[in-house]
Amino acid sequence: MTSAGSGLTLLQTCALSLLVFTGASQFALVGALAAGGGPFTAAAGAFFLGVRNAFYGLRLSQLLALPRAVRPFAAQWVIDETTAVSLAQPGRRSARLGFVVTGLSLYVLWNVTTLLGALGAEAIGDTAAWGLDAAGPAVFLALLAPMLRSGTERMVAGLAVLLGLGLLPVLPAGVPVLVAALAAPVVLWARGRRRASRGDAGEGEL
Predict the structure, then answer these.
(1) Phi, psi (rounded to 5 degrees) for 54
(2) pTM higher than 0.85, yes or no?
């Protein structure tokens, strides 16, 4: 429904769900489109959010050791859930089974519910009148909040919010999301500088 509320057709919504099998990237893309952003800006934001899956793939490639012919197809299922289930298994065989079962079940259910949601959006008509444009950001925040466990993670999230909201009135739609991605390197750099200064102060006392 969120995708339909952003102006995508039923076919585009289903194609997005089939080809971009990562919820955060999908919500980021449709959210940027709903805000009036261009397709390239929206795609860039979705791409940056999906980069973490590449790091998951590096770890899973060693754990699963799948045949080369299978790897391009398995890459479509490299997401948070399949990675967590695979890494929790005691051996390679059970890791492969967990990856396949989790990936297949989630992929089928995700796309079936996407189709039902898109059909429902068409049935109710004007999705904006129902406030469905807020569904994407709300779901994204619900997914993100439980992951903010450390102080560094909360600092990154807070700075990203400040950058995104602060630049929203002055930059084109979708661009503030890209700028907010700078929050992580900025916080890590600041913490590194702080630790370095503490180390220098300790040496001075000695």
Answers:
(1) -65, -40
(2) no
